Amino acid sequence: MISSNQKQIEFINEPNLIPLLDFFLILVVMLALMVGPIQSYIKINLPELQKKYSQTNKTNNHIISILKTNQIYLDGKLLTSTQELEQKIHNKGGPIKSYKLAVDSQLPSTNLIKILTILKKNNIKIMKLIVKNKN
After folding, report:
1. What is the spatial order of strands in the sheet that 125-132 belongs to?
2. How far is CA 84 from CA 69, 99, 115, 124, in A?
């Protein structure tokens, strides 16, 4: 019989996870050390950029410049009005229609909004907006 003075020992039936965690930590460290040498052995051939695509992308990238005096330039040529700009944009077309918009910082915002609405109406995406202060 067990007397009341003796203590009963209870066993914990939980698994010991510390060796398992040590094993996974060693695997992670070894993987991290082996990534460098493995990458030097693997050769990946990346495709070359086709010249036709790069040439069409360059030719369809146009620049619209607007000065504070409301003078509008398309690819360096002076336009007389926003209607002429809209006609030129509509006639250019092409598969990729992207424009860079160079604007003087002192240009009234209403004039800029007129140009942006013309571009949006013709489904034109502005690739870059350049704002310069010309004195």
Report:
1. 77-79, 72-74, 61-66, 98-104, 125-132
2. 17, 16, 12, 16
Flag whether pLDDT at 70 surpasses 90: no
Who contacts 63 (Cβ-Cβ below 8 Å, separation ≥6)?
73, 74, 75, 76, 99, 100, 101, 102
Rounded Cα gap, residues 126 and 36, in angstroms = 41
- Asked if residues 127 and 97 have their Cβ atoms less than 8 Å apart, the reply is no
The torsion region of residue 76 among left (phi > 0), alpha (psi -120 to 50) and beta comes to: left
CA-closest candidate to residue 113, choices 80, 91, 82, 90: 82
Per the model's pLDDT, the better-predicted residue between 19 and 50 turns out to be: 19
Phi-psi region of 75 (alpha: psi -120 to 50; beta: other; left: phi over 0): left
Q: What is the pTM of this model?
A: 0.50
